[in-house]
Each structure stands twice: as structure tokens, then as C-alpha cells.
Amino acid sequence: MTKLEKIKAIQTALGVAADGEFNDQTLDAVFSKLVPIQKAAPAAKPPAPAPAKPAPALPEPVVALGKIGPDHWLEGAVREVFEGGKPMPVRRCVVMHFTSGATALSSVNFWRSPEAKGANAHLVIARSGKVIQCRPFDRTCGHAGVSRWRDPKTGTLYTGCNDFSIGIEMANAGNEEKLAARMTKLPIVKARHRKGGPEQKWEAYTPEQLASVFKVVSLLMERYKLDDITGHDCIAPERKDDPGPAFPMEELRKANGLKGLPAMHQKV
Q1: Taking Cα atoms as reference points, which of 241, 255, 229 lies closest to residue 94?
Q2: I want to staple 76 with a disulfide (CB 3.0 to 4.6 A). Which of 41, 42, 63, 213 is the partner?
């Protein structure tokens, strides 16, 4: 078979005009037959986005605290009103306490019972940071009991601190170890009280609670020009341990322009 015959035979097999010339039409037909057209690879699908992680649980929202009004109530605090108390025209200091109880509301409810024998305080601050006010700051509350306090500026000794102090209770089990373990997930604080005695286990105060404490105390100090921030364990150390070594008393005082720990006034 001649070359011309071979070209014509190829053209016939490819279905093109068999004119015996190896033209562009014949070349394209041969190329298509012998070299498969490369299909473009499908575009890669973008990776599926990773499932969003759930947002971490946040503490219970706390209403922003405002100023102390002319009626001596704190804006933003929840009101659980306790009638009574005596007029308190002069306020000299803040006294910090722990409730030795479960929730803030459980302490408020206990104060409403006959078993409380008139015990109460101006404020209760929950572990969540929520602030409850029970009585205006110009009336006395039964938070201090038999107590004494010496004015750090004048040296004057006063007794019966209910008559001139603002009481702040913090929901906290104190050194009630079993209750503390049930009420908090924070590490228990092991410490000796500054009064002395053995090492004990104390419930830690929550960051949210302390944030409210620092804010409230600064508002009180500014509004009433108070002379001191002290603890129940300083005005009645013979019978009280609160707020105890887990509470950052020195830091609270420093934040309000006071130095060191408050003086401890023993019973005389």
C-alpha cells in the first residue's frame, strides 16, 4: 500500500474527506483520536467550617450600681425592705460580715423569722455579685451586736456599733467547712485567723462578689465620708470571726485610701 493509499485509509477511518493530503483537518482528527482531551479536575470544595464552640458560661448578670439617692437607697440594688431601725444621722464606718449561710436570699428570709431576734444588715451581696438592700443607710440595722470601735482619727472609743455603722453581709459559709464545700466550686482557703488559733478551712469569696463589694464600699465611703472599713471580727473579736482571712480586707481598705488592716478592739 502506497503512502497516498495509507493517508486515504486513515482519513476514511476518521470520517474526514479522503483526499490523500495530510491537512489540518486530518491532523485534528488524528489528535482527537489518539490524545484524549484532559478534563479539568473539579474544583476542590472548601472545607466545611468547624462547628462553633459554645460560648463559655458567664456569671449571672448583675445590674450596674448607680449612686446613693437622697433617700439613702442604692440605685441598682434589689430591695428586700425591712421596716424599723432607729434614725442614724451620723455614719462613721462600714462593717464587713459573712453570713455563715447558704444563699443571700436564705439569709434575708432568716432575718424575717423570730429566730433571728432582730438580726439584719443594710446590704447582702450574693456570690453572683447581686446586691440586696434591706434598709436605707440613714437607719440602724442589727448587724454588730455587743461591739466597740475606736475612731482612727480622733482616738474616741464608741460602743454599740449598730448606732453608727453600715453593715454589709456577704453570702459565704465562712469556716463552716461542709457548707462551704456545698456552696462553692472555688478552692477552699486554708488559713489561721489573725486572732490566732488553729488553721481552718474558709470559703473563698467569688470575683463577682468582690467586684460588687469594692464598688459598694467606694460609693459609701464617698457619699458619707466614712472614717473606717472594719470587720465584725475586729469590733467583736471575742465572739466573731467574719469576714475572716479569705476576705481581702487590706486590699479593700487600700482601694479607699486606708492603710493596713483595721484595728482589733478587744472587749474591756
Answers
A1: 229
A2: 63
Vertex 259, ends 257 and 261: CA angle to 5°? 125
Q: Which residues pair with 93 in a beta bridge?
A: 165, 228
What residues pair up with 97 in beta bridges, in sequence order?
Answer: 169
Burial class of residue 29 (count of CB atoms within 10 Å of its CB; 0-12, 13-18, 19+): middle
Q: Give me the catalytic one of 21, 169, 176, 177.
A: 169
Residue 151 CA, chain-centre distance (Å), reads 34
Residue 229: enclosing H or E segment and its boundaries?
strand 228-231
Tell me, yes or no, if the pTM score tops 0.85: no
Closest CA to 191 of 204, 181, 182: 204
Active site residue 115: no
- Euclidean distance between CA atoms 169 and 151, whole angstroms: 22
Query: Measured between alpha carbons, how far is residue 156 from residues 91, 124, 226 in Å?
Result: 15, 29, 15
Work out the burial of residue 73: count CB atoms within 10 Å of its CB; fewer than 13 is exposed, 13-18 middle, 19 or more buried: middle
- Which residues on neighbouring strands pair with residue 42, listed in sequence order? none
The number of helix segments (H) and strand segments (E) in the chain equals: 7, 10
Nearest to 147 by CA among 52, 25, 245, 232: 232
Tens of each residue's pLDDT in the chain, 268 residues: 676 666 666 667 767 676 767 666 665 665 566 655 444 445 555 555 444 434 333 343 356 899 999 999 999 999 999 999 999 999 999 999 999 999 999 999 999 999 999 999 999 999 999 999 999 999 999 999 999 999 999 999 999 999 999 999 999 999 999 999 999 999 999 999 999 999 999 999 999 999 999 999 999 999 999 999 999 999 999 999 999 999 999 999 999 999 999 999 988 7
